[in-house]
Each structure stands twice: as structure tokens, then as C-alpha cells.
Write a structure and sequence with these properties.
The complex is a heterotrimer of chains A (about 280), B (about 325) and C (about 350). Chain A is an alpha/beta fold and about 280 residues long. Chain A contains 8 helices and 15 strands. In chain B, the strands form 2 sheets. In chain B, strands 2-1-3-4-8 form a 5-stranded mixed beta sheet. Chain B has a 3-stranded antiparallel beta sheet with strand order 5-6-7, with no helix packed on it. In chain B, strand 3, helix 3 and strand 4 form a beta-alpha-beta unit. Chain B is globular, with a radius of gyration of 20 Å. Classes of the chains: A alpha/beta (about 280), B alpha/beta (about 325), C alpha+beta (about 350).
């Protein structure tokens, strides 16, 4: 077996500022070795460790989708030692990526089902990966209705805006874009917190609908009751968790929630699974 | 059961019965020979488990910082000096505390005692004796022999240079005050190291630290080490590496000693806690000596005075600043 | 079954001969304690050691280990490309390891060698190592290994079990690797197997009978995780803990580690260090959120992991093998035996009782 601590060398191909306050940047990486790209084949929902020699590693959800070839994309929030250094790097710099790690959204179970995707703030990365995967012509027919509720503090803080508005115009996906508040008189979409919009716009539960939820703890805390009101059972609510990680491969022992390791048994869990674990996350 | 234990149980029970405190912190009997377990009593029944013997070396003041309750605490001489420190440094307020002071005649050195035997110690007994129950005699048993030993021969190093056996601050006493010893040269051990030439000194400290495993038991047992984030744990910027690197290990110990300068009461909890039997006091003693000889300062004696590194005075010596 | 008889007078010579083929690790006295170390060229090991403060886990899992190195010198072609650090994995032998420590290695292997990932540093070291165990004739009062899944004469995880019979060792050969080591040391004098077995069985019983300390673990598997986690006894149990890390560092089954990058000049290395769930930093998020910010939560985590999560996850008994080091070295005498018995006998109050 390969050394799971050894990152694949990558080059930064492009850096985009993702939000108006510059706290998030989207990095596009290309693998230095073509065969590494194949070894890195991933599913929507997984994450990878971005590895900078001399600085450290950070576990970040994969924002690009498996159907996008030739590169991988990550959207990173600047918050600590490694992310600050990463934000100051430039196109052409070399670093490493370890992965793909973790489990993924249960695409097998979701075949033939309706999916409602609920995201908040900058937790939308793996949800972008999921949406592009589902909308891809080869996959769209495998799924029923797709609804998306995505909100941020203000229009400038929404990630992937161009793509959001593109999807909004399509008729094979229902977008409910929202912001907490805005001064923009031309804002065409919703205003309100994500849980509120979920309650108002999300489809009611039925045996064939699943909800994928990804966001900051406070959003999840209020979205859960909204989904319950709509009748979603705990095995129909799929969540993606975060935790402090180092190895990402289930060995260093720090990301555990009860006996589940977030990096290996997760980060995707159903609410039913989470309710069986101690609330240490 | 010796008299101190009896009195401590009585005083602690009364405090809880009268509702004067929310909890009392003291020592329970440990599960292994010569071990004691710091514990809290919230009811008079629980207070009946407290004991006092020659193995109560951990500094209970360590458990006080930032607590909000009304607390009764069993404290020997050095522990009370740390309580004074805590009050001066705003980690707890005086009116939260009811201090049951224990005039102390010293604690014993487990490592030194263990070295007297070939086999491991399986039992420890203190003579109740007919004197003031200071545990001056005790017996230690292994599978092959039993020895009767005298406390004065096995005092912990810090106890043998202690000049503050009696609590410096208290609400009640668990025994009569004891005589304070007069020590000829309380810093003889530090002078011995100061007088080494550089090469010997270097080797001395190298040898001292060669087994350190960075468990931070010394830091965590120390009542003075209450920084929300210790300097070794800072990551942005990172001051000290976390690996087994000689330079990083030395940095931790030397810097920690300096952070205790003017505050250390030489309670010996650091040495007691270290699983590798490192004489951590070799670092802090130097600062205790310097505080005493340069500033005439002994930590933890007066709740109204601040340590020398905390204060400024126009008369401070300044020949070294040119 | 094969048993080799080793006259103690021949021991040192044989050990020296084995140095030609093996790097040797064994118990060495340091100050007042013994620790397991790599033996320098002629350094003898102390076979009379009673216990070691640090377990032999450091042979396979050093406290600080370099795992990757990178040059940051942009004039080099391979700048910023991370490479595996060089380590010497030539054959090694750990001599004098106690049976419960050897069982601990097998439990740690469950973590580092899984069907999804293989930790090459630990696994390569494991494969290069021959474990020459020493049965514990006179167990310490801290030893409770029989009720923790091991025992003073247990054989799991060992390649050879040495039994100290006074003037000689009887070496029970358990694997080919063990036989190879004995051959390399020139210990080849066969002993009548039946005769040896009788002696060993008698000594084993004596040693096991001498151990009176036990833990009860029979009900742990049936308890609900959330019941144990939410039990009321954690606060008081955790009170005296000073969150130092001693228990985790002396424990032979604690495997948690930290990964750090360090840079000096143009060279950067990635190292892995032992880490401890006792540290408040262990679960600290970059955002400042900490799921285990309170001391009680961390103390609870350690015991839940050792005595419940591991039990559920691997179905191989508890993660504690009863060596007693944590009991002996905890500065405030937190006793895992008491915690285990408390957990094992805990019954949550039913709705009617509240």
C-alpha cells in the first residue's frame, strides 16, 4: 500500500478571491504527475489534506466535482497558520495534497430520489461538488427533484456566485438563494436566514426525499427543527461534520466523536447515526 | 488515624454541615502504597474520607484558580503561600475561601525510600505514636523485608530547606503551630550548581533533562502555571517545537522557571508529579534564591504585597542598565 | 513445541553475537527507573528490571519521528516535493519485553495496519522486529494483566517467551522469527519440551496466583455509549486530574499522535510526536471552538476510549492490558481499575426512579 502520509505534489494553477471580504479564496490545483490525478479519483463529499511543507496541513472539503477533469479545486477560509500562508501563495507554487479522504454523500442511496441541499456560509464547497455531479448530463436522470437552499451573510459573501446564478436559470434544479440581509435594491432572490427559507421553500418530506445539510453549527442547530417540521426523519437527513484533524486516515485518534472517527467513518453521517454519538463536536 | 486526620475531618464536616462552603478540597487515601488522591467533599459524609499523612505532597492550591464557589481547603505551609499568590494574582478572592491550615513537619521522599529496598514497596504505615502525631516514624514493607524509618532521614528536598512550615494565612488550624526551623544556608544546593564550571554545569543540566518526556506534569501540578495558553502551546507564532529536541526541552524548562520567578514557593509539587524523577526544582530554586538575595523577596507571604517583577519603585537597583 | 535452554553464563556472549544481525532494544536503567532503549554498541540490557516507566511502544513508535522531509531550496529540481524520511528498518530485536506489553503491540497494530490504510513507519518497524519476551515471575502489585486480557506468562504477540529459572532461561520458541533470533545468538541447546512445559506451567500458575488486583469488564460491551458518557460520576472522578499526559505517555496502548512541521534554513521536516487527549489543544479547532474544552470531558474521553469505544469498535476486549503504569505514575492517584469497575457496574437510573 502507498504511504498515506505522502502528499501528491501539485502546482497552484489559479487563485480566485471567493468573497468580497477576501477571507476566502478558491485554489485550483493541477497534479505534477498525471497518474496522481487518477489515483486521486474522488466522490462528492470527500475532503483532502492540503499540505504545505514547513507549515502543516489542513483538511478541506473538495469543491471541484468528480466530473470536472484535469484539476481539483478547494475554497479555503483564512483562519490560522497554514491557511494564512496558503492565502499568500501564488500561482505556480508547489505544495501537496493528500487524499481523497473520508466517506462521501451516499450517492447509491440517493439514486432515484429527490434531494434537497442546504448549505450556509463557506460550508458550501462539497455541496458545489455534489450539485455539479448531479447536474452533469450523465447523471441528471439518476435523480429526482433537486432543491438547493444556500445562504450567506450578504450577496458578496456567497461562494461561486456565477455558477449559482447559472443554476438559478436552469429548469432542472430549484435554487433558493438567500442572504441574511442586503442593501442592494437589485437583489432578486430571498432575504432571510437559511432555516427560515428551508421552512418556507423546501419540499415536504416523503419516502423519496433526502436532505443534505452542511454549514456552521448555528445554522445546523436551527435547520434541524425546520426539517423536522417538514417531516424529515433522522435517517433522511445527511450531514457533513468538521473536527480537528491531523492524519486524516483514522490513526492519530483526535477527531473521534464517540467511537466514530470524523476523518474515516465520516465526515458524512446521517442524523440517525449522530444521535447515537456523544455530542462532542 | 492520627490527630491531624481526625481534626481535618471534624473541621471539614462542620464547614459542610453549617453550609459555610460549597465544597472542601483535601486528600483521600490512595489506592496504592504511599499515594494520596486530592478529592472534594460536598457533604459531611464525604469529608470523613479525608486523611493527612506524610504523603500529602501535591499542592492543593492548584485546584483553586478561577473557581467560583465558596471553597474550604486543607493547606499546609507552602500551599497557603500559593493561596496568597493566587489572591495577589486575582485567581481567587479571599472571601471565597475558608482555609484549614495544617502546620506541617514535612513530607517524605518516595524515591529515596524506594531506593532503600530491592523489591517494590507493598505497604506503608505511619505510627500513630504518643507524640503530636507528626508521622515521625513510619514503616515500609516489601515482599522480603519491613523497615522502620524516621521521617527526618527521608524528608523531601524542599521540606528539608523549608522555613515556612506553619500556614501563613488560615481561618482555622488542624493542629498546633510548629516550630519554624532555622536553616543555615537554605540555598546550598543552588550554590553547588553555581560554582560548577561551564562544562560541568552544561553536563549537569543535560543529564538532568535527558529523560524528559514533555508530559507537562510539572507545569500542570504547579499552582503558578495557570496561563490560558502556555507558551509551549502557542501556534501562531510558535515559540517552541513540540518534539523531543534537546533545545526545545531545555527552552521549556528554563523559560518555565523564569515565569515562576518571584512566585515560586518551592512546594515541590513539580518534582512530586514528574514520572521520570527529574529534579525540576533545580531550575526554579535558582530563581527563588535570586529573588531572595537580590530583592529580599519570598513569595506568598503577604496578600498586600506584589512580587518584585510585578512592581516598580524608584529605588530599584539599576547599575546593570547602562 | 520447542524450548531452548540458555545458561545465564552464556547470555551476554549470545546477546553480543546477535548484535551482528540485529539492532537490539532492551531495558536500561536511567536514574531510578528503567526505560526501553536502543542499546549502544556494547551496552548490556538489564534483565533484572522489575518494570519500566515507559513502555516498549517507543521501539515501534518513537516519541518523535521524522516522517517526511522537503527541501525548500528553489534552486533544486525537487524543491517543495515531499519525500519519505530515511529510517533504518534493518532487523531489530526487543529483548525483555513483558507479555502484557507485547499484547499491547498487537492492539496498537489494529490502529496502524487497517484494510484501508497502512502506516508504513509503524508497520515497517513492526515487521523488522522480533519480540523476545520475558515472563514476569514476580508480578508487581500494580499488575492486573490477567483480568485485562493478558497475563504474566501470556504469549500473544511474542516470538520467544523467556522464563527466568534462576541459573538459566528456558526459551519457548513461538515463531520462526523467534527461532531465527535464537539461532543468531547461538542459543541452540534444546531442552526436553515436556519437561520444560511442566516447569513453565508451574511458574505460570504461581505468578498468576500472586496477582490479586483485578478489573471487571464483562458488562462493558452491553452498556450504551450515551449512558456511560452521560453518567454522573465523571465530574468527581475527574476532579483531581491535572491533565498532564503522564498516563498517556507511559501507557503501552495509547497511540495518539500529533503531526508538526519544522523548518531550519532551507530544510523542512514533518515529524510525528506522541500527543495526549489530556491536552486542551488536542481537539481545538482553528476557529477557536473546542468540543472538549473542559477537563472532565477530556478525562472522560480517555476512559471511554480505553474501556468502551475500543471495546465496541474492535471486539477484542478492552484497550487496557493491565500493566499498571498509569496507576503507579499518576501524580494524583487516578486509578483506572476503579474507573473500570465504576463503568462496568454503572446502571443508569430508569425513568421511574428519577
Amino acid at each position: 500500500m502507498e504511504n498515506p502520509y505522502m502528499p501528491y505534489p501539485v502546482r497552484i494553477d489559479d487563485i480566485e478571491i471567493a468573497t468580497e471580504d477576501k477571507s476566502l479564496k478558491t485554489f485550483k490545483f493541477v497534479f505534477l504527475n498525471k497518474e496522481d490525478e487518477e489515483k486521486f479519483s474522488y466522490h462528492a463529499g470527500q475532503f483532502a489534506e492540503l499540505s504545505i511543507p514547513g507549515k502543516g496541513e489542513i483538511p478541506i472539503g473538495i469543491a471541484s466535482s468528480p466530473v470536472e477533469k484535469g484539476f481539483v479545486k478547494f475554497t479555503v477560509f483564512k483562519t490560522g497558520v497554514v491557511t494564512s500562508y496558503l492565502h499568500n501563495m501564488k500561482a505556480g507554487d508547489i505544495m501537496g495534497i493528500r487524499g481523497p479522504l473520508g466517506n462521501w454523500y451516499p450517492w447509491d442511496k440517493l439514486q432515484g430520489k429527490n434531494v434537497i441541499i442546504i448549505g450556509g456560509g463557506f460550508a458550501f464547497t462539497t455541496l458545489r461538488s455534489s450539485i455539479i455531479y448531479m447536474l452533469d448530463p450523465a447523471n441528471r436522470s439518476k435523480f429526482g427533484n433537486i432543491d438547493v437552499v444556500y445562504g450567506a451573510r450578504s450577496p458578496g459573501m456567497l461562494l461561486y456566485q456565477d455558477e449559482l446564478f447559472e443554476w438559478e436559470a436552469r429548469d432542472d434544479i430549484n435554487m433558493h438563494i438567500t442572504v441574511d440581509g442586503t442593501d442592494d435594491p437589485d437583489w432578486k432572490y430571498n432575504v432571510g436566514f437559511v432555516p427560515t427559507i428551508v421552512e418556507q421553500k423546501a419540499p415536504k418530506a416523503d419516502a423519496d426525499t433526502y436532505a443534505i445539510v452542511c454549514g456552521p453549527p448555528v445554522m445546523i442547530k436551527f435547520t434541524q427543527p425546520a426539517l423536522e417540521k417538514l417531516g424529515y426523519r433522522e435517517d433522511q437527513i445527511i450531514m457533513s461534520l468538521e473536527n480537528r484533524m491531523k492524519c486524516g486516515i483514522g490513526m492519530c485518534g483526535r477527531c473521534n466523536i464517540g467511537k466514530e472517527l470524523v476523518c474515516k467513518d465520516g465526515p458524512v453521517f446521517t442524523l440517525e447515526q449522530l444521535n447515537k454519538t456523544p455530542k462532542e463536536y | 488515624m492520627n490527630k491531624r486526620t481526625e481534626k481535618i475531618r471534624e473541621l471539614a464536616s462542620n464547614l459542610l454541615k453549617d453550609g459555610k462552603v460549597d465544597m472542601v478540597i483535601g486528600f483521600n487515601q490512595g489506592t496504592t502504597p504511599m499515594a494520596t488522591n486530592p478529592d472534594i467533599a460536598r457533604s459531611p459524609e464525604q469529608a470523613e474520607k479525608f486523611i493527612w499523612d506524610n504523603n500529602c505532597s501535591i499542592n492543593l492550591a492548584n485546584y483553586l484558580a478561577d473557581r467560583k464557589e465558596k471553597i474550604g481547603i486543607i493547606a499546609k505551609g507552602c500551599d497557603t503561600r500559593n493561596i496568597v499568590n493566587h489572591i495577589v494574582e486575582n485567581k481567587i478572592s479571599r472571601d471565597q475561601l475558608h482555609i484549614i491550615g495544617v502546620p506541617c513537619t514535612g513530607m517524605i521522599d518516595k524515591v529515596k525510600i524506594a531506593s532503600e529496598f530491592d523489591d517494590e514497596i507493598i505497604e506503608y504505615n505511619e505510627d500513630t505514636g504518643s507524640d503530636s502525631d507528626s508521622g515521625n516514624n513510619f514503616s515500609v514493607k516489601t515482599a522480603s523485608e519491613t523497615k522502620e524509618l524516621l521521617k527526618k532521614d527521608y524528608l523531601k528536598a524542599n521540606c528539608s530547606t523549608c522555613m515556612h512550615r506553619n500556614p501563613v494565612i488560615y481561618d482555622e488550624l488542624a493542629a498546633d503551630l510548629v516550630e519554624e526551623p532555622v536553616i543555615e544556608d537554605q540555598f546550598a544546593d543552588v550554590r553547588a550548581i553555581e560554582e560548577m564550571d561551564s562544562k560541568d554545569k552544561w553536563n549537569y543540566f543535560d543529564d538532568l533533562l535527558k529523560d524528559c518526556i514533555r508530559c507537562y506534569a510539572c507545569r500542570n501540578a504547579c499552582p503558578l502555571c495557570f496561563c490560558p495558553t502556555c507558551f509551549v502551546d502557542e501556534s501562531d507564532p510558535q515559540w517552541v517545537g513540540k518534539g523531543q529536541n534537546d533545545i526545545d526541552i531545555r527552552t521549556f524548562h528554563f523559560l518555565r522557571a523564569y515565569h515562576c520567578a518571584g512566585r515560586c514557593t518551592d512546594c515541590g509539587a513539580c518534582v512530586e508529579a514528574c514520572p521520570m524523577d527529574i529534579n525540576v526544582r533545580a531550575f526554579t530554586r535558582k530563581l527563588v534564591k535570586d529573588s531572595f538575595e537580590i530583592y529580599g523577596w519570598e513569595a506568598g507571604l503577604d496578600t498586600e504585597k506584589r512580587p518584585p517583577l510585578d512592581t516598580f519603585n524608584p529605588n530599584d537597583p539599576d547599575e546593570f542598565i547602562k | 513445541m520447542k524450548v531452548i535452554k540458555i545458561d545465564k553464563k552464556e547470555w551476554d556472549k549470545g546477546i553480543d553475537k546477535s548484535r551482528e544481525k540485529y539492532q537490539l532494544f532492551g531495558p536500561v536503567k536511567s536514574k531510578n527507573n528503567h526505560i526501553f532503549k536502543k542499546l549502544e554498541n556494547d551496552q548490556p540490557l538489564d534483565m533484572e528490571y522489575k518494570d519500566s516507566v515507559l513502555s516498549p511502544k517507543s521501539v515501534l513508535f518513537p516519541q518523535t519521528e521524522k516522517i517526511l522531509e522537503t527541501t525548500l531550496d528553489e534552486s533544486k529540481d525537487d524543491h517543495h516535493i515531499m519525500k519519505r524520511a530515511d529510517t533504518d528498518y534493518s532487523p531489530r530485536a526487543v529483548i525483555g519485553i513483558s507479555p502484557c506489553d507485547a499484547k499491547a503491540v498487537q492492539l496498537v497494530k489494529l490502529n496502524f495496519d487497517t484494510k484501508d490504510y497502512r502506516d508504513p513507519y509503524w508497520c515497517d518497524a513492526y515487521e523488522a522486529t522480533t519480540f523476545i519476551g520475558l515472563a514476569v515471575n514476580r508480578p508487581s502489585i500494580y499488575d492486573f494483566s490477567p483480568s485485562a486480557g493478558s497475563g504474566p506468562f501470556a504469549e500473544e504477540g511474542l516470538d520467544v517467551l523467556l522464563v527466568d529459572c534462576g541459573n538459566e532461561y528456558l526459551a519457548k520458541v513461538l515463531t520462526d522469527k523467534g527461532e531465527a533470533f535464537l539461532g543468531a545468538a547461538g542459543f541452540t541447546r534444546k531442552e526436553d519440551a515436556k519437561h520444560a512445559e511442566t516447569i513453565i506451567t508451574k511458574m505460570k500458575k504461581e505468578a498468576e496466583d500472586a496477582i490479586v488486583s483485578t478489573i471487571s469488564t464483562d458488562k462493558l460491551k452491553d452498556k450504551e455509549i450515551l449512558d456511560l458518557h452521560g453518567a454522573p460520576f465523571w465530574d468527581d472522578l475527574a476532579f483531581s486530574c491535572i491533565n498532564c499526559g503522564t498516563c498517556t505517555y507511559v501507557c503501552p496502548t495509547c497511540w495518539c499522535f500529533d503531526i508538526q512541521d519544522e523548518t531550519k534554513g532551507n530544510m523542512s521536516i514533518r515529524i510525528r510526536n506522541w500527543d495526549t487527549c489530556m491536552s486542551p489543544l488536542f481537539t481545538m479547532h482553528g476557529s477557536g471552538h473546542n468540543p472538549r474544552a473542559e477537563k472532565t470531558q477530556r478525562v472522560r474521553q480517555r476512559f471511554m476510549h480505553k474501556l468502551k469505544y475500543f471495546v465496541d469498535k474492535y471486539d477484542q476486549g478492552t484497550m487496557c492490558i493491565g500493566c499498571g503504569r498509569c496507576v503507579k505514575h499518576c501524580p494524583v492517584n487516578i486509578d483506572i481499575r476503579e474507573v473500570c469497575n465504576t463503568m462496568n457496574s454503572y446502571e443508569p437510573k430508569s425513568e421511574n426512579e428519577i
